[in-house]
Amino acid sequence: MSTAPRSARPRGWLWWLLVTVVATQTTLNLCRPLISYRSVALGADALHVGLITAAFALLPLFVAVPLGRLSDRLRRTAWIVAAGIVLMALAPLLLALSQRLTTVAAGSAVLGLGHLTFMVAAQRMIAQRSGEDALDRNFGLLTASAALGQLVGPLLSSLLLADASSGQGLGPQTQQALLVAALTAALGLPAVLGVWSATQPRAERGAAALPLPDLLRRPGVPAGLFTSLALLSAVDLLIAYLPLVADQRGITPAAVGALLAARAASSILSRLIVERLVQRWRRHILIMASTLGSAAALSAVALPVSGTAAMATALVLGGFLLGIGQPLTMTMIVRAVPVDTRGTALSLRLWGNRLGQVAIPGAAALVAGTAGAAGALWFVSAVLLAATAAVRTSAARRR
């Protein structure tokens, strides 16, 4: 039986943690579209954009699980939070100075490492210090804060890029915007002091590590991992390829930022009410609705006849459904493993996400190379349909 502490309401350390989440996610989601635009300014095509997007997940593949094991052993993980923020502040500086596509890829990789480092610590804090009755709510707050960053980041991108057109002319504008992104990440450092007192109970220190094969055999874990990576890859490819799809249809970068912000705002709403949704419907039903609805929304965006209004409608509806899936897969996974291995389990989830962020964008880049940028969205829609089937199968086996 779980010995995790129970809490009736979010505590002070959680609110400070959410501040750092907003700061880092704003930086991340300001940088990701800028990486695409800066790549285009340096002569990249759809294939290059896909490969650079995959570079974001490269380094985390090697450090995710060891970092999760470390977080399970430590009483205080705030220093890991701080390390992630520092890396996320340094990455935009590298990107701003880049003059070659290889340097852009390196900056993307550092950004991914910083984000992974931060999220391992943040998710582990919530999993270890939340009562079983508060997991959906607190993970919902975590992911809602992330979605707020996904809203603010593109809005900042819209303001900083204004009505600039893609191509060589975007070089100076993206450089200035990346410097703003570095400052935004740094603003999260003071909030680390607010989570410094959050510690793991001493009784859990030195607990034996559950082997990874055993974790992967726990009921619900494989389906949760695959669904999580599918949903995250959908967001990543949307951020990476929507600028290219929009440019082909004569839609300005400012409008793209507004579209991405609308999607994020809708995700915030669904994550804030996820606890109520779980009280009404089963968790696996909600996750299937998330993957299936997201696939439909991305397919609608990819349709050649979709203009700004159609895209906005699809992204608002799809954003609501996209927002539901991630916090519920977190709860699915942590409830399936022992309390003293939750950090490892969540890091395994993040590792799976990064593996998906390497493999799926890489495969999408090949599709985009022949079918155009919209083809990448069609591809990830198919992955989401496969995730829907996986969740349904997993739920049927557990009955």
UniProtKB/TrEMBL annotation:
Intracellular or extracellular location(s): Cell membrane
Domain Major facilitator superfamily (MFS) profile as annotated: residue spans: 1-399
Signal peptide: none
Membrane topology: Multi-pass membrane protein
Gene Ontology cellular component annotations, sorted alphabetically: plasma membrane
InterPro entries: MFS, MFS_dom, MFS_trans_sf, Sugar_transport-like, Tet-R_TetA/multi-R_MdtG-like
Protein name: MFS family permease
Originating species: Streptomonospora salina
Lineage: Bacteria, Bacillati, Actinomycetota, Actinomycetes, Streptosporangiales
